[in-house]
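Hey there, shall we discuss this one?
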Amino acid sequence: MAASMKTVLNLVLISVLVSFTSSLPRFLHGRPKHGLLGAPKLPQGSVLPSDMWLKQKLTHFNYADTRTWQQRYFVNDTFYKPNGPIFLMIGGEGTANPAWMLQGAWIEYAKTYHAICFLLEHRYYGKSHPTPDLSVDNLQFLSSEQALADLAYFIQYVKHKYNLMSKDQKLITFGGSYPGSLSAWFRVKYPHLVDGAVATSAPIFAQLNFKEYLQVVVSSLATTGPGCNKNIKMATDTITKMISTDTGRKSAEKMFNLCDPLDTSQYVDGSNLFSNLAGNFEGVVQYNKDNRAFEGAIGTNITIDTICGIMTDESNGSPVERYAKVNSLMLSTYSQKCLDNSYNKMIKGLQATAWNSSASEGGRQWMYQTCTEFGFFQSSDLGDVQPFGNFFNLKFSIQQCMDVFGAKFNQELIQMGINRTNTNYGGYGMRATKIVFPNGSIDPWHFLGFTKDLSMESPAIYIQGTAHCANMYPATSDDLPQLVQARATIEKLIGTWLSSN
């Protein structure tokens, strides 16, 4: 979901740019930079569709507020035949990538069913800026409910603009990760506007302490054997001892190539270190072998086998030295000179409200949504079942909300927002028809989704051995048979929805 962390102050003060861009973690609250959904690789010579714009309401829930803004979308009518269906991909917590208008499983479905394809960018992400900046006061208009209302208005708009008014023309929504949730929730809240929904890797249940995330990570790493988790645990124990003394702390700073000295006088710096080192593994697991072959791909060739291979290879030294080698691999892969572990720098970066700040890439906005609607905090509170230590607990995540947005964003406020989300959309008690829920067994997010059929009319597809949103990407010759079957099942379901009355 864009180029690496947009420039701070538009390349003014280069030293500030380098400082803030590197201060935001590659993996924050389960979201990698650029968003949870990547982009498929384009064939050489591909021509991307142009940016299109519509006038959107700032708020759909206060008719006395008449303010508007420009929302970006894309369209591809290459495969469309008169009275064909409308396919709508939902943008999420990152820049909407027009590469999806040319590639991906949904484009193959569009060819089959002669659909016109739209992609709507989510408010507050990419180029869709509803407000002058990202202040807390302005972020009040960022919510899943507003995003769903944007979709409803957009559908009415494009039906008129593109003459798609036939009663026989049905509409199918597509989304992966958070947009997968939106796809399902749109079917729940606006069933008269959508005839079917594909909700891939969609977290359906909002949860404050998502400690089970690491449970899936551990299980996924264990597919390579017991040695990987065992050696991570040994490395974690060694680091814990190292940072308890001045000499050991300095050794750890050098071993893990920290940009700044580790401040052990405040627990948040230590928590950030263990969280960042765990993030090296979390990100790889979440996207393991998922066909995210980005144009100019970075890191997609690093798999569970790669990192666990390092952790179990005794020629790489002691377990902590192997852990450091994984860290060095990730730093070099993403062209980072050092690991910026400073908690204060991270918070300062996320507090930036300008649209040309590094935080506007999506990190600040996604954190706001987790702190007001979803939780989804991937904590270490699972205990000794996981090998990454118990330092980045729930308290650490809540502290970030309070430090970035203000003291009132405490656990009570966050939990109230989570309760409202589950009440509004149904959580695990959701009742809806004509939704399909594909999830990968390797993907930690499947824990908050449906891995068993919601009903006969809303089936789940649990794909063994695949990761986050894998079924959305273009097919390859290396795809597992169950992934191939999942795509075929989804295509058949869409055909059923389009032919039903």
